[in-house]
Amino acid sequence: MITKFNHVAIVVPDLYAAARKYEKILGAKVSSISDYSEHGVSVVFVELENTKIELMHPYGNNSPIKKFLEKNSGGAIHHICLEVKDIKSCCKNLKLHGITILGDEEPKNGAHNKPVIFLHPKDFYGTLIELQQE
Fold first, then answer.
1. In whole angstroms, what separates CA 58 from the centre of its chain?
2. What pLDDT was estimated at residue 108?
3. Any alpha helices (H) in 11-97, and if so which ranges?
4. Active site residue: 83, 106, 130, 134, which one?
5. What is the pTM of this model?
6. What are the contacts of 108-113 at 24+ separation with CB within 8 A?
7. 130: annotated active-site residue
8. Helix ranges, 33-119 (H)
9. What is the rounded distance in angstroms from the CA atom of residue 120 to the CA atom of residue 125?
10. How far apart, in Å, are the Cα atoms of 122 and each of 83, 87, 95, 108, 127?
């Protein structure tokens, strides 16, 4: 099912400062800040040759990552993203194996404007996994 690693997401206390640190100190190419009100996050992507790092910050009062940042005030890894060829068939297979798909279990367009789902960390050894269609 999974085909490649897409990105690791890190929740940060100050998105602008984090983006500048990756850009100025590590010399990385960093995207501009994008706000996703429907997902409750603001993000930038650090572009690497073989993958990306997604830096995230809560957007709005109902952000799903707000409590995560409160518990991890200095920032922390939030999730990893893996790609799949067919997210609909992947969902069916996951349900057959008793894997919990978060939310309403239906793919939603993510930050790359591609369908994504999130898998409950209890099913994958404490790791929140985002699956994204190629």
1. 12
2. 93
3. 15-20, 66-71, 87-96
4. 130
5. 0.93
6. 108/38, 108/39, 110/39, 111/34, 111/36, 111/39, 111/41, 111/43, 111/45, 111/54
7. yes
8. 66-71, 87-96
9. 10
10. 20, 20, 15, 21, 7
**Structural tokens at position 109:** 């367009």
State which amino acid sits at residue 65.
Answer: I
Domains, the chain, ordered by start = 2-133 (3.10.180.10)
What is the identity of the amino acid at 88? Answer: K
**Helix runs in the chain, H state only:** 15-20, 66-71, 87-96
What averages of pLDDT result for each successive group of 10 residues across the chain (134 residues)? 95 98 98 94 96 97 94 97 96 96 92 93 97 96
Amino acid 1: pLDDT: 87
Q: How many CB atoms lie within 10 A of CB 39?
A: 19
21: DSSP letter: I
| Burial tier of 26 (Cβ tally within 10 Å: 0-12, 13-18, 19+) | exposed
- Residue 8: predicted pLDDT: 98
